Amino acid sequence: MVTSKLNRLIHLMGFLHLQDLVGASLIIPLIIIQVRNLGVSHVVGGAISSVYGVLQVITSPIVGRWSDVVGRRLVMLVCLIATAISYVVLGASQSLVVVILARIIAGIFKHSQTVCRALLADITPPEERSQVFGTFNASSSMGFIIGPMLGGHISELQDGFSLVCNLGASFFVVNFVLCWMFIPDVPPVKSQSTKEKSESENLTQIFAFMKDIDWKTFGDVFLVRFFLSFSSLVYRSNFSLLINQNFGASPKAIGYLISFQGIISAVAGFFTGRISKFYMDSQRELYHSSVLLTLSLLGLTVAPSLSLLLVCLIPLCISSAVIRVSSSAVTIGRCKPSKVGSVTGFGQSIASVARMVTPLIAGITQEISVYGPGVMGTMSAGVGAALAGYMARRRNLKEE
71 — alpha (psi -120 to 50), left (phi > 0) or beta? Predict the structure, then answer.
């Protein structure tokens, strides 16, 4: 059972996560607008967005491995203050070079969520992880309800973009202070071979962790996570354009629909622990939730009315919340304690890879048909569901 002290720490980390995502979601919708205001083309603007995604892919497992070696708290403090600095720099941007510099800093250090997940895995008993991760993920949905609306209002003020960036930075500064004061300095979990290494590992040794990942153990679940992440992202990337073209939805209506998704995702996150206890089998849970995701994306793609699309958003949000928890549980369940940080970081980088490629693929499929992103997302989710089903069936055959 989770003790009261541990429960308070989990709630504190959930609050830190909420503030993290409010700060980030304040700015994300406005960056491309700021870039365009500098007279940059759509292609260059997209390339700048890709810089962040590429750096996230490269540095996420490195930061996870770093936290395995020196401890979670120190790495989280560094990530928080560096992210705050990147947002201040972004708010002061009057040239393209400054924008790129700010996004490079954020791309390298915006990994506080990865470190939080690794710390939660360190301090939480295995049987409680699904419930804890569900509550933790629910805070992200709440953050994306508050942030975009608040950022949209402030951005209309004079020097609005700078105000939004500085406000976002302030959330990370507050998180830095709370982390410094209340997050315990949990010693890093080290294997015997790690203990024998010097703390002054060089860059070559840090990159060597990628060779340590047992691809026979994690390859299938990483592949499932990629297809499922890609399926949701490729649909959501053109969500606003889709409902505007199909149903003539106004920007205000689109905003309400996005907030509705955040609310459903937040509520679903608080129930994922109960769902996991009902299943008592993370792989079967992952399979069923991925099937639900596939059916939801199919319904959203062919929905003839806005009301039916609204109905289909509910299982989409629920399945996405369950998938985040069950896929993390499957991944962590296969880990040695000394590898949780690096494997968790690499798992996060899979979503970053999907996030890198989805805008381009969604744009290409949108040129073919307005339903292109939905069809592509449905197909990708179907592949992920098939692989998840194969994983669950193979595990059952081994146990028989």
Answer: left
SS (H, E, C) the chain: CCCHHHHHHHHHHHHHHHHHHHHHHHHHHHHHHHHHHCCCCHHHHHHHHHHHHHHHHHHHHHHHHHHHHHCHHHHHHHHHHHHHHHHHHHHCCCCHHHHHHHHHHHHHHCCHHHHHHHHHHHHCCHHHHHHHHHHHHHHHHHHHHHHHHHHHHHHCCCCHHHHHHHHHHHHHHHHHHHHHHHCCCCCCCCCHHHHCCCCCCCHHHHHCHHHHCCHHHHHHHHHHHHHHHHHHHHHHCCHHHHHHHHHCCCHHHHHHHHHHHHHHHHHHHHHHHHHHHHHCCHHHHHHHHHHHHHHHHHHHHHCCCHHHHHHHHHHHHHHHHHHHHHHHHHHHHCCCHHHHHHHHHHHHHHHHHHHHHHHHHHHHHHHHCCCHHHHHHHHHHHHHHHHHHHHHHHHHHHHC
pTM of the model: 0.64
pLDDT digits (tens, 9 = 90+) for 139-169: 666 777 777 777 777 877 788 889 989 999 9
pLDDT in tens, 184-241: 876 665 543 333 333 334 334 444 555 666 667 677 888 888 899 889 888 877 676 6
Contact (CB, 8 A) for 315 and 307: no
Quote the CA–CA distance of 39 and 47 in Å, as a whole number. 14
Q: What angle do CA 380, 386, 387 make, to 5 degrees?
A: 90
- How long, in residues, is the chain? 400
